[in-house]
Amino acid sequence: QVQLVESGGGLVQAGGSLRLACAASEGTFRRYAMGWFRQAPGKEREFVAAISRSVGSTVYADSSKGRFTISKDYAKNTVFLQMTSLKPEDTAVYYCAAGDYAVNTVTNYNYWGQGTQVTVSS
Fold first, then answer.
1. Rounded to an integer, what distance in angstroms lies between the CA atom of residue 78 and that of residue 22?
2. Angle at 90 (CA atoms; ends 89, 91), nearest 5 degrees
3. Alpha carbon distance 4, 13 (integer Å)
4. Among 21, 70, 74, 79, which one has the highest count of C-beta atoms within 10 angstroms of its own C-beta?
5. What is the per-residue pLDDT across 98-113, written as a single tens digit (0 to 9) for each?
C-alpha cells in the first residue's frame, strides 16, 4: 500500500517561504503521479499542484503559478512543494496525494497523507 507523510509546515509571515515535503513509500513514484492539495476550515479541498509519473511535467492551480514549485527526488522518495511569496489566504492544511494522472481533480487521487498545517500571518 502507498504511504505518504507530509512535513515542513509551520507559521510564516506574509511574503515568506516554506518548503513542504512528502515522503512516499518505495515504488510510489514509478506507479503514480503526485499532487498537492490544501483545505482551509469551512472550505472544500483545493488543488495546488501536480507532477506526472514518468516525464515529470507539472500542473499548477492559477493561485499557485509563479509562486509555488512542485518537484520530486527519486533517491529520497520525496515530493516537494516550494512555496514563496506566501499570503494569508494560503493558510490551510496541505495534503500530498498519489493518483493515476497529474490532474486537478480530487477523485483522481487514491492515496492521501495526513496533512501538514501552513499558517501565514498578515
1. 5
2. 90
3. 27
4. 79
5. 999 999 999 999 999 9
Alpha-carbon gap, residue 37 to 79, rounded angstroms: 13
Cα 107 from Cα 91, distance rounded (Å):
23
- Tell me the pLDDT tens digit for each residue of 15-37: 999 999 999 999 999 999 999 99
Question: What stretches of the chain adopt beta strand conformation (E)?
Answer: 4-7, 10-13, 18-24, 33-39, 46-51, 58-60, 68-73, 78-83, 92-99, 109-112, 116-121
Rounded Cα gap, residues 47 and 19, in angstroms: 17
51-85 pLDDT tens trace: 999 878 999 999 999 999 999 999 999 999 999 99
Tell the residue number behind the cell numbers 510510489, with chain if given: 28
